[in-house]
Amino acid sequence: MSPDARPPQTAAGHRSSPEPPAFDPAVTPGPSADTGLPFAAAEAVIASASSIGLVCHVNPDPDALGSLLALHNALVQQDRPVTSSFPRPFKLSKGLAWLPGAGEIVHPEHFPETVDVLVTFDAADLERLHEFKHHADHASTLVVIDHHRTNLGFGHVNLVDPDAASSGNVVAALLRHMDVKITPAIATCLYAALAADTGRFSFRADASTLSYAAWLVDCGADSSRVAEEIWGSAPLGALRLLGEVLVRAEFESDISLVSSYVTNMDLVSHGVDRSDTEDYVENLRMAVEAEVACLYRELPDGHVKVSLRGRGRIDLGAMAARHGGGGHHDAAGFTTGSFGHARACVTGSLAPLASPSPSATSPAPGIVRGPCDT
Ligand SMILES: [Mn+2]
């Protein structure tokens, strides 16, 4: 964004204004007109659609749900024919169910068989949409909104920006093109998306991200409630189980891995919903001894979901992709058949990175501590 593109500051840009501040491209990051993304095409197909479906990936996180709800609320505001959903098990954690518009999301069985335009959020590929893959295959126009580097653009119109801090940033840019008034409800959804995908402003937290966050708060985003509901609250059983998971943590120094696990029986014995364990891996990631943190979680069908977190020196997104999953450089995951196989996949992928080079005494790439190259 060139500084020259900054529009004249208006009264609407000040906090004392009763109106939301103008969308300021100088402080609103994410894709802008000069990134070449087809915002005009997305706007046109949405404007002319006879029915619009919005879906995000399975087990929505705050970015998936927040980016979906931001556009959902905007389209409701414009009286557009929109229906929103996400795949089974169709369960939101308590920390997300309060987000504005969440109560209007319909169960997959009530989603129209076909829609004119289907918009997907934060899903790097069709598989992440589960049963909505069918709808994606049959929609007259498929619009893909995402920021995963592994997203190759599976839609007719692809708003995919790997440099965007969250999928919500891409939605914000689209809303700007659509000239949508950013209400407190929309701002809160976009803020939740941004806060989550920056690790609560721990990474990708450059000046433009923080300016964008401030702009959302100016627009009425309830930043305190986002912090309290999503990260500041948990059922006691979930905290007790987290304690057990941390006590179980193992450290394998040769591959610089800290790992632990959650079984279905753990959930039963503590009365915990699976969605309440989504962030456990973030606690493991804090272990300063390890380059990689890994949490294995058993799924109802006995498969195991592997969540990986890193410190910048190993491309976990690429590693997860080799096992049929995906994600970002420092946060990725995949699903596989059993605890034993999951563990073999992870340790087998890390071992070559940890082995000393046969021709040199220097540490192997990927494990060496040094300047982060990401
Ligand atoms: Mn995301």
Core attributes:
374 residues; alpha/beta; inorganic pyrophosphatase (n-terminal core); Diaminopimelate Epimerase, Chain A, domain 1; 6-stranded mixed sheet; disordered C terminus; binds manganese (II) ion
Task: Provide an overview of this structure.
It is a single chain. This protein is of the alpha/beta class and 374 residues long. The protein folds into two domains: 14-230, inorganic pyrophosphatase (n-terminal core) (Alpha-Beta Complex), CATH 3.90.1640.10; 236-354, Diaminopimelate Epimerase, Chain A, domain 1, CATH 3.10.310. Helices cover 35% and strands 15% of the residues. The strands form two sheets. Strands 6-7-8-9-11-10 form a six-stranded mixed β-sheet. It has a five-stranded parallel β-sheet with strand order 2-1-3-4-5. α5 runs antiparallel to α6, α6 (184-197) packs antiparallel against α7 (207-218) and α6 packs across α8 (223-231). It starts with 38 loop residues before the first helix and ends in a 20-residue tail after the last helix. Mean pLDDT is 88; it is low at 1-17 and 357-374. It binds manganese (II) ion.
Give a quick summary of the entry.
By secondary structure, this protein is an alpha/beta fold.
Secondary-structure map:
Layout: H1 39-48, E1 52-56, H2 62-77, E2 82-85, H3 94-97, E3 117-121, H4 133-138, E4 141-146, E5 157-160, H5 167-177, H6 184-197, H7 207-218, H8 223-231, H9 236-247, E6 250-252, E7 257-262, H10 264-270, H11 280-285, E8 292-298, E9 304-310, H12 316-322, E10 326-327, E11 331-336, H13 339-354
Helix pairs in contact: 2-5, 2-6, 5-6, 6-7, 6-8
Bound molecules: manganese (II) ion.
Manganese (II) ion binds at residues 63, 122, 147, 166-167, 197.
